[in-house]
Specification:
The protein is of the alpha/beta class. It has 14 helices and 14 strands. Helices cover about 40% and strands about 15% of the residues.
């Protein structure tokens, strides 16, 4: 059965949801308050860098099943409405749900009784139960349906998900079944649970990934002290079926739109419940320390000491987004490290395939990776874009003032950069102590 679906919010999650549900055969109306964004999307212009998303949006527009609007009254005819609204980190680390609450307040006079309201936004535990009480008198059942989308793989994750999680009260189980039917073409396993369990599962998943990343970054530092190779250590850990290989590569720290705010929100949830969650707090502290350790490693590679002056030193940055496959700069560890380098007096030039400009304005963003090497005393790889491996490193060495590269992602081929004349600093492979070595 083709459902008439409303999606409120045309951000990362909302646009992916709208485009993919259209691809699955549903009629979708996507609402956003930004008129210029709606106009652009109506012309098939997608500002979000996500593989396959532009094509799905344009296909939906061509077939007539996907529409964009700022008019909320268009939702009066839909069967299901999905709330894909921002819930940023608020005061004290708790998720700020004011935008969500403002929209929910308008729904009773807008939606037809029986329309299912779906919270796809990441919301504090207990939100689903509270919304169900608020909307029950209007005949609007509420279902929690958290998203588990990876930036750079969002379309793939939506259309081929590991699982679909639906949280609803006992009286709203029929509504949960209706939401499950939206995903029928994906053949993914569907898990029905209560609203709080669905909400907590979302936070817990991201927090666990953050724990794993902080763990491997600490292991990388330990490897440097003992001459071990974090690549081998990570592979050997990952061979254990109870652990798995994902998220076992060291880096400059974890960031992005989800992990920082979701770990903070889960920690705040635990504090409010009187539950001690020290390991999560320590993982967050370790992440902040990792960024500082990378800055020390860069100082050491350039000056020979982990606290050497960078005043006036030209540094080229390869990568600014928080990870490859996206242009997202939100809570990017690369940008945080750039900010600290600039604060130390370094003059920065950066290149990222997905980024045209950066705020704050601490780095001059260029559109050619070879420009970052001009007169640079060091190059620093901060984002794991595969194309950085394929650069002409001899050409980069010729343009640089000094052939020094700090590879915070262990991405580069040591033989290639070595043959080009670069001294090569990596994480958890060579060196001694948190400063590392060249």
């Amino acid at each position: 059965m083709v459902d008439r679906v409303g999606v409120i919010g045309a951000g990362y999650v909302g646009l992916t949801t709208a485009a993919c549900l259209t691809h699955l055969g549903h009629d979708v109306l996507c609402i956003d308050s930004d008129q210029s964004k709606v106009d652009e999307l109506g012309q098939g212009e997608v500002a979000i860098a996500e593989p396959g998303l532009t094509e799905l949006v344009r296909d939906g527009l061509i077939c007539g099943r996907l529409r964009f609007s700022t008019a909320m009254n268009g939702l009066a005819a839909v069967d299901v409405v999905l709330l894909c609204l921002p819930t940023p980190k608020g005061e004290g680390g708790e998720a700020d749900v004011r935008i969500l609450e403002e929209v929910v307040a308008t729904l009773p006079g807008l939606l037809a009784p029986g329309c299912v309201v779906v919270t796809k936004s990441t919301v504090p535990v207990g939100t689903g139960n509270r919304l169900a009480e608020l909307l029950r008198d209007a005949g609007l059942p509420v279902v929690g349906n958290p998203e588990f989308l990876r930036e750079g793989h969002a379309v793939e994750d939506f259309l081929r998900p590991d699982r679909i999680v639906l949280g609803a009260s006992e009286e709203d189980q029929a509504a949960a079944e209706r939401v499950a039917a939206l995903y029928g073409e994906t053949d993914a396993p569907v898990w029905f649970t209560d609203p709080s369990s669905a909400e907590l599962a979302k936070y817990a998943s991201n927090a666990f990934l953050a724990l794993k990343l902080s763990y491997v970054n600490i292991l990388a530092e330990l490897c440097e002290h003992h001459g071990a190779d974090i690549r081998d250590v990570g592979r050997l850990i990952g061979l254990d079926s109870r652990i798995g290989p994902a998220f076992l590569r060291p880096g400059p720290g974890w960031g992005g739109s989800c992990l920082p705010k979701d770990t903070a929100a889960l920690l705040r949830t635990a504090e409010r419940a009187g539950v001690e969650f020290g390991m999560l707090r320590d993982a967050m502290k370790a992440n902040a320390r990792q960024q500082a350790a990378v800055v020390r490693k860069i100082r050491l590679a350039i000056t020979g000491t982990p606290d050497g002056s960078l005043a006036g030193v030209r540094i080229g940055l390869l990568g600014l987004a928080f990870k490859a496959g996206t242009g997202d700069l939100r809570d990017s560890p690369a940008l945080a490290i750039a900010t600290e380098l600039a604060r130390s007096g370094a003059v920065l030039t950066g290149y990222d395939p997905g980024v045209e400009s950066a705020e704050p304005d601490v780095v001059q963003v260029v559109d050619d990776p070879y420009l970052v090497a001009k007169d640079a005393e060091a190059l620093v790889v901060l984002t794991e874009w595969p194309e950085f491996r394929e650069l002409d490193w001899t050409r980069l060495a010729a343009a640089a003032e000094r052939a020094v590269v700090v590879d915070t992602r262990n991405l580069l081929d040591p033989a290639a950069v070595g043959e080009a004349g670069f001294s090569h600093t990596r994480l958890g492979i060579d060196g001694h102590g948190p400063g590392g070595a060249r």
